[in-house]
Amino acid sequence: MWSDTEANPGTLPSEFSRVAITLMKGVLYRDASPLLWQSLLRHQPGIRDYVAVLGLELLVDEGEGYAFLRQAEPPEGTAPSQELPRLVPQRPLGYLVSLLLVLLRKKIAESEARSGEARLILTADDMVEMVRLFLPDTANEVRQQDRIRAQIGRIAEMGFLRKLPGAGDRYEVGRILKAFINAQWIADFDRELSAYAREEETPPEPDDDREESA
Length: 214
Hints:
Helix content is 46%, strand content 11%. With 214 residues, it is mainly α. It has two domains: 9-82, Arc Repressor Mutant, subunit A; 95-199, Arc Repressor Mutant, subunit A (Orthogonal Bundle). It has a three-stranded antiparallel β-sheet with strand order 1-3-2. Strands 4-6-5 form a three-stranded antiparallel β-sheet. The longest helix has 20 residues, at 95-114. The radius of gyration is 20 Å and the shape is globular.
């Protein structure tokens, strides 16, 4: 009987390797890849041990149907010189991306409260209009919309949105947002928005220092 934890990398079955590679590239969704999802559940202990060697931890939410890797925190007392290099970099998100993520997270909550619907589908136009309410007026609306659409594409690359094949510009909002954008994150961002409103300042450009939580 093959054992995940005892196998050498060269002897791992191909399905184990496919799951590990998929997780290294981003989020694995049950609905998008049902066969890979079943492989993940079969080999979960071995995959968890395998990525731990790289300083990563596997997070699986079977109820919501997603799994992803994030950087594991070093054991308490570990000297900086002994910490493993980061495989999951922390990158600035920028104001527009942060705003979009918060608004999408709120949309998930509204959808659950209103109808209990498991899937949230939005068009790119829906998201553009949703964000424009929080941006200052501009004389160049086309440029502003292009900027928002560019950030929508970035969020899709991050795995928080999935473009539906053959459905134009319709996207499914990934419920993994619930794991990344918590109540404290939203509260902090809401306070920032309130501060901008009180001071009548223009919100920061998309190169501020907010970082990904992964």
